[in-house]
Design brief:
By secondary structure, the protein is α+β, with helices and mostly antiparallel strands. It is built from 3 helices and 4 strands, in the order H-E-E-H-H-E-E. The protein has a single domain, classed as putative nitroreductase (tm1586), domain 2 (NADH Oxidase). Strand 1 and strand 2 form a beta hairpin.
């Protein structure tokens, strides 16, 4: 994905909705790959309501929304690439950050 297409993909990912407007995704470019990380919100989803009702992990749902916006933008621009699980050797800032997937162009 070229830098112009990447900027558009990132812009559309940023505009995607997320639970509580937390936008928990972090995206890092390394060469022709874009690595998607989930930055967990401390205590989010730990409430008694979440546990009693068995609610879904909304921050993972948020990740899916951001990934979808990124991929749809790439497809609209005619950019080729695919999702791959290949965690790079990038130091994470804390234990709340977890690698999810990479888009490799």
């Amino acid at each position: 994905m070229d830098s112009s297409g990447a900027r558009q993909g990132l812009s559309w990912a940023r505009l995607g909705p997320s639970a509580s407007n937390k936008q928990p995704w972090r995206i890092i470019q390394a060469g022709n790959a874009w690595h998607f990380y989930l930055q967990r919100t401390r205590g989010y989803g730990d409430s008694l309501t979440f546990k009693l009702l068995g609610l879904a992990d909304l921050q993972r749902v948020d990740m899916g929304i951001a990934m979808s916006h990124f991929q749809l933008t790439a497809a609209e621009l005619g950019l080729s690439g695919q999702w791959a699980v290949q965690e790079p050797e990038i130091k994470k800032p804390d234990r709340l950050t977890e690698y999810i997937v990479s888009w490799v162009g």
